[in-house]
Design a protein that fits this description.
- By secondary structure, the chain is α+β, with helices and mostly antiparallel strands.
- The protein has one domain.
- The chain is about 40% helix and about 20% strand.
- The chain contains 6 helices and 9 strands.
- It has helices at about 5-65, 95-100, 125-135, 140-150, 170-175, 185-195, and strands spanning about 70-80, 85-95, 160-165, 180, 200-210, 215-220, 235-240, 245-250, 270-274.
- Strand 3, helix 5 (about 170-175) and strand 4 (about 180) form a beta-alpha-beta unit.
- The model has no long low-confidence stretch (mean pLDDT about 85).
C-alpha cells in the first residue's frame, strides 16, 4: 500500500516530459515559422521600396512640369507616321479651365457654325507648347500635320484623348482636361493646333446625319501631294477659294491626313474657313 503513489507519480513525470517535448517542438516550429515570416517581410519591404522608388521616378517624370494650382494632363501620341511613341504632360491652371468650363456653350448645328470660330484659341500658351514640342519631334510639314492629328485622335487609352458623345461646343482646354469628347470637340482641338502651327484649315460639317448626328471634321490646306496617307484609301480633297484642302478625321485612331473613312464617304460637307 505504501508504494501506491509511485505509479501515479511516474505517469505524471512521463506526462510532463511528453508535454514539455510537445510544447518545445511547437515553440521551435513557431520560432522557425516566425523567422521565415520575418525574412519574407524583409523581402516584401525591399520589394516595396524598389516599387516605390520606381513609382516616384515615374511620377517625377510625369508630374514634375506641373505647377501649383494646376492639373496635370498627360497625352500619348505618335510621330513618324505612327512609328515613334511620344508623351507630353501639360500644366493646366484650374482657373483657366474653370473659366471655360462654366461658360454658356451653344449646341452644335449648322446655324451655330460661326460660333466655332470663337473656340479656336491658337494663341494660348498650352496650345503653343504642344505645337512646339511636336515640331521639334518631326521633320516635315506633313509629319507635323499627322502627328497633331494623332495627338487628338481617340486611342481608347487612359493617357490619350478619348471619344464620348457631347452636344456643346467646347474650348480646346476643356477637351484636354476632360480627356476628350465627340467629333466636334476633337475637330476644334485639331483646328486650333493646326492654326497655331500656321496651317490653313476648314471646318467640315456634314449635311447628312450618320448614327443620328451630323459629323464634324477638319480639312487641311497643303500645296503638295501628301505621300504618307494610307495606301488603300484614295485621298479626299476639297477645293475652297481655289486652294486644295485634305480631309482629316479627328476621332478614330489610325487615319492620316487625306484619309476619308469608308463610313463617311457618302457624306457631303458644308465648309467654313477657320
Amino acid at each position: 500500500m505504501k508504494n501506491n503513489w509511485v505509479r501515479p507519480l511516474v505517469i505524471l513525470v512521463i506526462s510532463l516530459l511528453i508535454s514539455n517535448f510537445i510544447i518545445y517542438s511547437l515553440y521551435d516550429n513557431c520560432l522557425q515559422k516566425n523567422n521565415e515570416l520575418i525574412n519574407e517581410q524583409q523581402k516584401l519591404v525591399t520589394k516595396n521600396n524598389d516599387l516605390n522608388e520606381t513609382y516616384q521616378t515615374f511620377r517625377s517624370s510625369i508630374f514634375k512640369p506641373v505647377e501649383v494650382n494646376c492639373t496635370a494632363v498627360t497625352i500619348v501620341y505618335y510621330t513618324n507616321f505612327s512609328n515613334n511613341e511620344q508623351k507630353i504632360t501639360l500644366s493646366v491652371p484650374y482657373e483657366k479651365y474653370n473659366s471655360t468650363n462654366y461658360s454658356n456653350h451653344p449646341t452644335w448645328h449648322n446655324q451655330t457654325l460661326e460660333s466655332a470660330k470663337d473656340y479656336i484659341t491658337d494663341n494660348e500658351t498650352i496650345i503653343s507648347q504642344i505645337v512646339e514640342t511636336v515640331k521639334n519631334q518631326t521633320r516635315s510639314e506633313e509629319e507635323v500635320a499627322n502627328a497633331l492629328l494623332d495627338f487628338v485622335q481617340d486611342k481608347q487609352n487612359g493617357l490619350s484623348i478619348r471619344y464620348y458623345p457631347t452636344r456643346e461646343l467646347k474650348y480646346p482646354i476643356e477637351t484636354l482636361v476632360e480627356m476628350g469628347g465627340d467629333c466636334d470637340t476633337h475637330a476644334i482641338l485639331y483646328a486650333t493646333l493646326m492654326k497655331a502651327a500656321r496651317f490653313k484649315v476648314l471646318l467640315l460639317f456634314s449635311n447628312e446625319k450618320i448614327d443620328g448626328q451630323h459629323h464634324v471634321a477638319i480639312a487641311v490646306h497643303f500645296e503638295n501631294q501628301f505621300t504618307n496617307s494610307l495606301p488603300d484609301i484614295e485621298d479626299s480633297i476639297f477645293t475652297y477659294n481655289g486652294e486644295k484642302y485634305y480631309y482629316a478625321e479627328t476621332t478614330g485612331w489610325g487615319w492620316r491626313v487625306g484619309d476619308l473613312p469608308p463610313k463617311f464617304q457618302n457624306l457631303t460637307f458644308q465648309m467654313m474657313s477657320l
